[in-house]
TrEMBL record, chain A:
Annotated Gene Ontology cellular component terms: extrinsic component of mitochondrial inner membrane
Listed HAMAP family: UbiG
Compartments (UniProt record): Mitochondrion inner membrane
Domain of life: Eukaryota
EC identifiers of the protein: 2.1.1.64, 2.1.1.-, 2.1.1.114
UniProt entry keywords in alphabetical sequence: Magnesium, Membrane, Metal-binding, Methyltransferase, Mitochondrion, Mitochondrion inner membrane, S-adenosyl-L-methionine, Transferase, Ubiquinone biosynthesis
Cofactor(s) this protein requires: Mg(2+)
Protein name per UniProt: Ubiquinone biosynthesis O-methyltransferase, mitochondrial
Enzyme class: transferase
GO MF annotation terms: 3-demethylubiquinol 3-O-methyltransferase activity; 3-demethylubiquinone 3-O-methyltransferase activity; metal ion binding; polyprenyldihydroxybenzoate methyltransferase activity
Keyword S-adenosyl-L-methionine: yes
Binding site for S-adenosyl-L-methionine: 49, 92, 113, 172
Automatic annotation (TrEMBL), chain B:
Protein known as: Ubiquinone biosynthesis monooxygenase COQ6, mitochondrial
Membrane topology, record value: Peripheral membrane protein
Keyword Membrane recorded: yes
The protein's enzyme class: oxidoreductase
Cofactor(s) for this UniProt protein: FAD
Localization (cell): Mitochondrion inner membrane
Matches recorded under HAMAP family: COQ6_monooxygenase
Top-level taxon: Eukaryota
Subunit structure, as described in the record: Component of a multi-subunit COQ enzyme complex, composed of at least COQ3, COQ4, COQ5, COQ6, COQ7 and COQ9.
Sequence similarity: Belongs to the UbiH/COQ6 family.
GO cellular component: a single term: extrinsic component of mitochondrial inner membrane
Entry keywords, A to Z: FAD, Flavoprotein, Membrane, Mitochondrion, Mitochondrion inner membrane, Monooxygenase, Oxidoreductase, Ubiquinone biosynthesis
């Protein structure tokens, strides 16, 4: 019952804004696109996240095709634009790292961020790329629609009569920074169309993650600025699963209660690990020791009909 | 075991912040007006040599890349001349390369090998390499290659062909991809990073007044690479005090059934190689001191024949005759000198060691008689003699950073190597294969293919591989260059050991196998060369220690 208490207590707190955190990240946003700088790890992690999102969506298309052959054909026809035709929302888009990739893969992408300087940086960066800005399409391809908006998921949800609904909602490395995870997750979930996908990546609350993300990364190696992380805000995979099954009704409770054993067509948890000798992130092999103890991805499918 | 490391990432910022008035930003709101004269590309390749053309072909033949990526190639020379190149059969261009089986497999996979004119390709089945001082000899044959790699039949060690045949084949394959822009007869005059907030993308000024802006700029522009200069990438290395003289040589046909064989003799001035192109023609690559190379440009077949056969002491005499500016030697006088040197070494006029073609017996004696020596060269194709300075060089990195970001180097722009192992072009093709694979993966992940993150797998795949090859070839060059007796001793002893050691054989048969075998073969080879060079160092040390007497004893003992 731990998550409920945690979420409830967070919701009970009076303030919903956290100005000190916003100021902190605005300073960092200049460095967003420096691939060797503070965000180097994030740049390296991005291909794994994009690959996971792409593969999950393609697998769903294949699974739901009338025949396997038709599924393969649909996927083949999508070619290098596997996300074509999908409306995608990235909540907490930062400098636009994930958004740019999703847009190049064909998704109609909207990135939102609560920090206006992040949104400015992301917009500026995309404007330098003719494939994203459509300034001079020297190729045969139509430029990708990519938009950024200075707003929050709650505001987006509340804005306008036509509730925005997205085929895919992503929020990467955000959950561990929010003050009210329950509200936050609910708003993300509400922005997903029935039958759509939600992707999250975050850090679990374990001694290992405390050691790696705070002791090592902030204090010893100085890979990221001190104060980037607050361990108490980290969310465990089991807490996420519980929220999406008990609170939102998206997932059947895993038969044996283990978060690693989710119904394959409803949700999945995958660990991510950094291989220093290869200089890259990978999806941890399923069942690897401590697979979900630090960085992990969570995918869930919204039921097609309300539960 | 995988190490799990904390990411430390935070994409920041909070959702519960109340934005006063939500603004929609699109990239258009910022889009700086790019002057209409600026053409935008995703990839611009500078250089239409073998590496640049292969890269354009490899990128275009990948569907995911072609569907998402605009490609341009800039070449200072006239590509139409390469595309329409033809040469009377039986004659050959003097720029020839041995294409390893791995390279050939790659060219096949990008649809280019089918356009390489088969009748101008020679399949190398055998290789003879020996030391000019000790005569210690190693032989490789394609049949050994089979047992070495342990899998499947490999009918040839390598394919010998003219660079032009390869470049023409690549251009013909590029005809299939009209969207690839080939800009030839035009030079890159200047490259600048965009200033201000436009992202610092490389912008090229061409000699015809055009301006190109590109996401990724690839330097396939040879040793003096303008792209390398733009990227601020430094180069390590040095010029060898050596030039390579190349020429197309003619000779009588061999006995039917003789395997097509390459010959390389290591002289103290550098190796001389005979690389077969057909039954009656071969390419010469004679690496030697620059002043000799200059004199050899007016060379005569007898001199080449002698260089494969005469003992080094006599070669020195011939060099002196050649360099004697006061008395211009005629070919006849040279032949006479060679004949006299042979007699003094007790070489019979009709033996395979005789350099002078015996009149009237061309069919048999003219071939040299035995397979351990190359056929006697009877003539040199007019206009085919040329010289190239040789150098070892390696760019310190393959992808640019900071102000030189969005750049990558391939081929001779990234590295130049002594031709003794015939690897320069093959290394360039391996670069091209790795870079195009890296771009294909990046495109499928929606990455910005000019970004460092997207390009990083390329140097990871190639830098160390190339470094091993460069340093091993450099060591071989130095090993054979010396006349210092203990080193010669170690060398001949080493060579005889080498003869048993498959590892060192693969130095010269690099990448002769198929697919993934290459690197493992090479690792063994590199270890072998390290071993030999250590042996040389200890031989030098021993010699200094024991002095001349000890050295004489060692040598006597070795002679038995
Ligand atoms: C004697 C000799 C023998 C060799 N034998 C072998 C062998 O047996 N096997 C082997 O694998 N390799 C061999 N090599 C090496 C091989 O020839 C080279 O590695 C190969 O040709 C390099 O190809 P490249 O495309 O990288 O560069 P290059 O062939 O040098 O091409 C560079 C191109 O860039 C163009 N360029 C440069 N600057 C500009 C500019 N500013 N604007 C526009 N265009 C520009 C040039 O016009 C040129 O066409 C040999 C080399 C030598 C010297």
């Amino acid at each position: 019952m731990r998550i409920s208490r945690r979420l409830l207590s967070a919701a009970a707190s009076a303030s919903t804004a956290n100005p000190s955190e916003i100021a902190f990240f605005s300073r960092l946003s200049q460095q967003w696109w420096d691939e060797s700088g503070e965000f180097a790890f994030l740049h390296r992690m991005n291909p794994v996240r994009v690959g996971y999102i792409r593969d999950k969506i393609l697998a769903t298309i294949e699974d739901e095709a009338p025949t396997p052959a038709q599924g393969r054909e649909t996927v083949r026809a999508l070619g290098p634009r596997p996300l074509a035709g999908l409306d995608i929302l990235d909540v907490g888009c930062g400098g636009g790292l994930l958004c740019e990739s999703l847009a190049r893969l064909g998704g109609r992408t909207l990135g939102i961020d609560a920090s206006s300087s992040n949104v400015a940086i992301a917009t500026l960066h995309a404007s330098q790329d003719p494939r994203l800005s459509g300034s001079t399409p020297s190729s045969n391809e139509r430029p990708q629609p990519l938009e950024y908006k200075h707003t929050t998921s709650e505001e987006l949800l509340a804005s306008g009569a036509s509730r925005p609904q997205f085929d895919v909602v992503c929020s990467m490395e955000v959950l561990e920074h929010v003050d009210h995870p329950d509200k936050f997750l609910r708003s993300c979930a509400d922005l997903v169309k029935p039958g759509g996908h939600l992707f999250l990546s975050t850090i679990s609350r374990t001694p290992l993650s405390q050691f790696l993300t705070i002791t090592m990364a902030e204090n010893i190696l100085g890979l990221v600025s001190r104060g980037t992380h607050d361990h108490t805000k980290y969310v465990k995979p089991s807490e996420l699963v519980q929220f999406f099954s008990d609170e939102l009704g998206w997932i059947r409770r895993p038969s044996n209660g283990s978060p690693g054993n989710l119904p394959f067509d409803q949700a999945e948890l995958r660990g991510m690990a950094y291989l220093p000798w290869a200089g890259k992130w990978i999806l941890s092999p399923r069942g690897a020791p401590m697979e979900l103890d630090c960085n992990y991805l969570f995918w869930a499918r919204k039921p097609k009909t309300p539960q | 075991m995988t190490l799990i490391l904390g990411p430390c990432c935070r994409q920041h910022a909070r959702r519960f912040f109340t934005a006063s008035k939500p603004t929609v930003w699109t990239a258009r709101s910022f889009a700086t007006e790019v002057p209409s004269s600026v053409e935008e590309f995703d990839v611009v390749i500078v250089g239409g040599g073998p590496a640049g053309l292969a890269l354009a072909t490899a990128l275009a033949s990948s569907k995911p890349i072609l569907d998402t990526t605009s490609i341009a190639l800039i070449e200072a020379g006239d590509l139409a001349r390469v595309r329409n190149w033809s040469q009377p059969s039986g004659t050959f261009s003097n720029r020839v390369s041995s294409i390893t089986n791995i390279s050939q497999g790659f060219l096949d996979s990008i649809g280019a090998w089918a356009h390489v004119e088969n009748s101008r390709v020679a399949k190398l089945e055998d290789m003879q390499v020996w030391d000019g001082l000790s005569d210690a000899r190693i032989e490789f044959s394609a049949s050994e290659l089979r047992s070495l790699s342990g899998s499947g039949r490999v009918p040839q060690i390598a394919h010998m062909t003219e660079n032009l045949n390869l470049q023409r084949g690549l251009l013909h394959r590029l005809n299939d991809f009209p969207s690839v822009k080939l800009l030839d007869n035009v030079k890159v005059d200047d490259i600048k990073a965009e200033e201000g907030d436009k992202g610092g993308w490389p912008t090229l000024k061409l000699s015809d007044g055009k301006t190109l802006r590109t996401r990724l700029l690839v330097g396939a522009d040879g040793f003096n690479s303008p792209v390398k200069k733009y990227a601020g990438i430094r180069t390590y290395g040095w010029a060898y005090d050596t030039h390579a003289v190349v020429a197309t040589m003619f000779h009588s046909p061999p006995f039917p059934g003789t395997p097509l064989t390459a010959y390389q003799r290591f002289l103290p001035t550098g190796p001389i190689a005979f690389l077969p192109l057909s039954d009656t023609a071969a390419s010469l690559v004679w690496s030697t001191k620059p002043h000799l190379a200059a004199a050899l440009k007016a060379t005569h077949p007898d001199m080449i024949n002698a260089a494969f056969r005469l003992p080094d002491t006599s070669m020195k005499v011939l060099y002196d005759v050649l360099l004697d500016t006061k008395s211009q030697v005629t070919p006849e006088e040279m032949a006479e000198t060679i004949r006299w040197r042979e007699e003094s070494h007790g070489i019979a006029p009709l033996s395979s060691l005789s350099s002078i073609e015996a009149g009237g017996s061309a069919a048999v004696g003219g071939y040299g008689g035995e397979a351990d020596m190359p056929p006697l060269v009877t003539a040199i194709q007019p206009g085919s003699v040329a010289g190239f300075p040789l150098r070892l060089s390696h760019a310190e990195v393959y992808i640019g950073e900071g102000a030189g970001a969005r750049t990558a180097l391939v081929g001779d722009a990234a590295h130049t190597i002594h031709p003794l192992a015939g690897q320069g072009l093959n290394m360039g093709l391996a670069d091209v294969q790795a870079l195009s694979k890296c771009i294909e993966n990046a495109v499928q992940l929606g990455a910005d293919i000019g970004s460092r993150t997207a390009l990083l797998p390329y140097p990871r795949a190639r830098y160390f591989e190339n470094h091993k090859l460069l340093s091993a070839t450099d060591k071989l060059h130095k090993l054979y260059e010396t006349t210092f007796p203990p080193v010669v001793w170690a060398r001949s002893a080493g060579l005889e050991v080498i003869n048993e050691l498959e590892s060192v054989k693969s130095v010269l048969m690099m990448n002769a196998g198929r697919g993934g075998e290459a690197s493992s073969l090479w690792d063994v080879a590199a270890a072998g060369v390290e071993g030999v060079s250590r042996a040389v160092h200890s031989a030098e040390a021993v010699a200094r220690g024991v002095g001349n007497l000890g050295m004489a004893l060692i040598q006597n003992a070795l002679r038995k």
